[in-house]
Sequence to fold (343 residues):
Amino acid sequence: AQRFCKLLADAGLLTITWPTEFGGGGGSHWAQTVVREEMWAHHEPRGAQYMGVNWVGPAIMGFGSDEQKYRHLPAIAAGDVIWCQGFSEPDAGSDLASLKTRATEHGDGYRINGQKIWTSYAGMAQWCILAARVGDGSKHEGITMFIVPMDTPGITVRAIKSMLGPHHLNEVFFDDVRVGPEAVLGGVGQGWVVIRKALAHERVGIARYARCERLLSALGKELGPVWDRLPASLHAQWARALVQVRVARLLAYRTVRAQETGETPDVLASAARIAVTQCDQSVAEVLFQAIEDESLEAGFSAPLHGAIEDHWRYAQAATVASGTIEVQRMIVSRDLLGAAAKG
Fold:
């Protein structure tokens, strides 16, 4: 995955929309979407670099100082650096605003103490974008984003095993981790604004609907004449899944359009995320039922080269990762209720 990411960077396909001064291509969000869809559809070996590409980079671009931008963005665009995000905590997952990790002023900098969980790629990352609370505020008050080197004394990473296969989830402990004022991203107490923008970018950057449509298309070819002998109910389930995929694609396109016009796409991104995760799981079930006992086989010799088992396994986590589907529904419903109240 890291080698392939570097190849994309060398070909100018990794950060198409980024300004050229930061190593990007200066292109449109639609061009990036086309590449992103093709990469997902054809099972690109995806890895840790996309944390930096999909949302750490855009967050630094939107809120960072000039020094932060010129230090970090070219390295991300070149595929040379890996980031992790210090967001979720044991008691602050879906309710991220309840986070307890605290940054206490110390001299001209800060001393950070707390614990993060489900931190992808923390064991191999060079940098962490960390959410911590400064001051005595509650909920959104005082949340501040920090850019922290992962080799800073006081940081401990412990692996978490999961059904996703290759290890990438971790617990991260911060014990008197000291950072300077230059580590603050977006200003003290402005972390929630940064988080909203960051998560909107992350959610629209996951084009799994493209992979879903390709797998549905490939299913008929894989089964050959057996396809016609499948129950009518399974054919109908396949058709419903395809409709869900197309809806998810259109909702994602609404978010891309919002990005292109400079709108804040967080509610649109949540709506698209709901649709994408649901179609992910629907397609996984159709594939599993159609292939039956062969669906658990992995490797290149398995049906669809093992993509069914891989897709189903990751689909189980889809409605939890990057904010649970329940949280996404709350974001959308609050927006709709707010619009109705104004109307």
